[in-house]
Specification:
With about 170 residues, the protein is an all-alpha fold. It contains seven helices and no strands. It is about 80% helix and about 0% strand. Helix 2 packs parallel to helix 4, helix 3 runs antiparallel to helix 4 and helix 6 crosses helix 7.
Length: about 170
């Protein structure tokens, strides 16, 4: 029973963390395309193996590409201890499909961190797969973020109009 409550609290914290970052992104004061571009850059840099430099590279790329830098930082948080195993495994699997390699060997090399010992074939396979995965998730995040920001602003405008109309209606 105590373990169930512990899992519920962890899930609640994760949901709150996601909701917090959602609101941080949709409330940024910039055009939707700049916010979405920033998130996409951050997602790409967050998933791509930058070895701890993802946030810095996301800020630099956002500056160069005229994207929102805060959104880039927030987008880079997609890679975290919860998502790392998913993205690394998916990258390895996509790489094995591209090169028609045995997935077990590549996954074993990644799991045991053998791919960091020089530029081995497993690293090349992983990197190719990761490039595809990073690009795909960056593109998806661009369109999803842009839609969220536009819908949030539309909803906010409708609420303000309804509030204004109710104030005007009370004055008559």
């Amino acid at each position: 029973m105590a373990n169930n409550k512990k899992n519920h609290n962890r899930l609640t914290r994760i949901k709150r963390w996601i909701k917090l970052h959602y609101y941080k992104i949709v409330r940024i004061d910039d055009p939707p395309y700049k916010i979405a571009r920033g998130v996409a850059i951050g997602v790409f840099m967050g998933i791509f193996p930058t070895f701890g430099l993802g946030i810095i590279l996301a800020i630099i790329a956002a500056y160069i590409l005229k994207a929102n830098r805060a959104a880039a930082v927030l987008g880079s948080f997609i890679m975290n201890p919860l998502t790392t195993p998913f993205f690394w495994t998916l990258s390895a699997l996509v790489g094995t499909v591209i090169f028609r390699e045995e997935s077990g060997q590549v996954l074993s090399g990644i799991k045991n961190h053998h791919f960091l010992n020089g530029i081995g074939w497993a690293y090349v396979v992983f990197l190719a797969g990761n490039l595809v995965v990073s690009t795909l998730f960056a593109a998806l995040s661009y369109f999803i973020t842009k839609k969220w920001v536009v819908e949030h602003r539309k909803h906010k405008a409708m609420k303000m109009l309804a509030k204004r109309d109710s104030i005007i209606g009370k004055g008559l």
